[in-house]
Amino acid sequence: MLDSILFSERHIRRCFTRCLINNPFSSESTPDHKLVIRAIQGGPSSASARLVSRTRLTHARGHLSATISLPCAQGIWPAFWLLPSEPFSWPNDGEIDIAETWNRSMENHACLHWGHYTPQDADKHRVAKNKIPDMDVRPVKFDLYWDEPARKLVWLVDGRPVMREEIPRGLRPMADWNILLNVAMGGNVCDGQRPVDGTYDMVVHDMTMSSIKAKAIDHYYSKARSGKPL
Asked: How many domains does the chain have?
């Protein structure tokens, strides 16, 4: 039997370290025990949270899946992503973005980064942009499959393969990576826009992680395309 982890809301709270900005209530839960990461804008004050997993990916071959309702609004930037465990060297050790959207674009960005934002490293930033017109009114299922021995990564949105990439040489082993969930406000990608006053909730309906067998990734890999350089 393959190893598998089902992250319930309580399990997520045990397995993630909470990094709060300005407000102790930026991480909540719904009455039916779904995890909520909340950003709050109120006049000149703002508050948000970032959760970083204590649990790492742990497997050389694996599958990470989450169903998430993403807040979609001007100046709001939610993300479900991966970084190597600390200490790490960004960007050489890598960054994987599974779900990322901003400014109510109704567009998800699946990304792989392992270079600086310079002309010579332009090919070390790969992205697949996928329009999801109803992203603001329903949960979306996001999946990442990896096969480190075969050097393969595949991203899926609602069960559809949207990007594939070779794992670049020099990235940290996949077993060393942590899961991150956050809602940011403003920033460069939001073009300086700030959200209007209110609360903005990222709701994690479920999250699972499991090991996979050799070649289990190949079906999805064959149906996906490589991302485009930024």
From this structure: 1
Q: What is the pTM of this model?
A: 0.90
In a domain, 103, yes or no: yes
pLDDT for 2 equals 38
Has residue 179 been placed in a domain? yes
**Distance (Å) of CA 32 to CA 5, 29, 35, 65, 201:** 20, 8, 9, 20, 15
Residue matched to tokens 């010579």 = 120
Closest by CA to 212, choosing from 30, 13, 55, 60, is 60
Burial of residue 91, with CB atoms counted within 10 A of its CB: 0-12 exposed, 13-18 middle, 19 or more buried: middle
Q: How far apart are CA 41 and CA 76, in angstroms?
A: 10
Summarised one tens digit per residue, pLDDT across range 14-38 is 555 555 444 544 556 777 889 999 9
Range of the domain at 46: 4-59+71-133+170-208
Most confident by average pLDDT, 5-9, 20-24, 31-35, 190-194: 190-194
